[in-house]
Structure prediction request, 282 residues.
Amino acid sequence: MIPIKLTSSPLNLRTAKMDSKENQHPVMYQNVIVMRHSERLDNVEPTWVSTATRPWDPPLTQSGRVLAFKTGQGIRKNFGFPIHRLFVSPFLRCVQTAAEIVTALSDVNEAGGSVSHDDISADPSKVKVSIENGLCEMLNTIAIRVNVAPKDGNFSFDISELETMFPNGTVDNDNNEEMVQKELPKWEESVSQANVRYQQAITSLADKYPTENLLLVTHGEGTQVALSSYTKDVVEHKVKYCGFVQLTRPIFKNDHSFIGGKFNLQTHIGQNGVNYISSQEL
Prediction:
């Protein structure tokens, strides 16, 4: 477990009142949202890979950008807590998804009435974003077709270039030097290895920032792991674009004593347990 890092910013998690017995205090809860990226271009335009310089790393479609932005607005509008930090896989489709969400969460318009990211004036103090290797795609032929994978197994992400896609001032440069997984996994990692990696990344990031609510933008398998790790009743399924799982755990009592309890799954919409922001919620 990574050592606990206590931030100096005020706690703004979620508080549940306890009964008035002696020596009991209200408990504060940490919330962690694990989300799949939005719609990828190569699934809509299969011929894109034939001319792409990085065919293993497709961008979002335009409708995918819109979905990601609206999902960010829905989170801001409908969740009863703020998102303090966003961590994201270095794959382009995830970074672009995160950029749209961060823009929506950073909108200085408290009513969140903007209709696109072009209308946003961002407040960088609202949320910080960092790229995290531990949230990357499974690096095997199950997730990445062998005919598009780099021949040498080198996926070569330019982190500095990816960071330019986020609103000014929202990137936490210090944290990017302290990823919980320093290097990308090796090509042809097994499904079980990837699943362990996803679970460790989720747990390590939550433990590193226990006083903050987190949003982790990853891939379908990572979202599935977040779901299956905390319930025994879920059947394997394909997670839709921008589908997310909400995890919550008790973290502090009001007297500031640390609890660090286990995560509980808060996701109940749909038979598969994965939430989606509906048009009625935007």
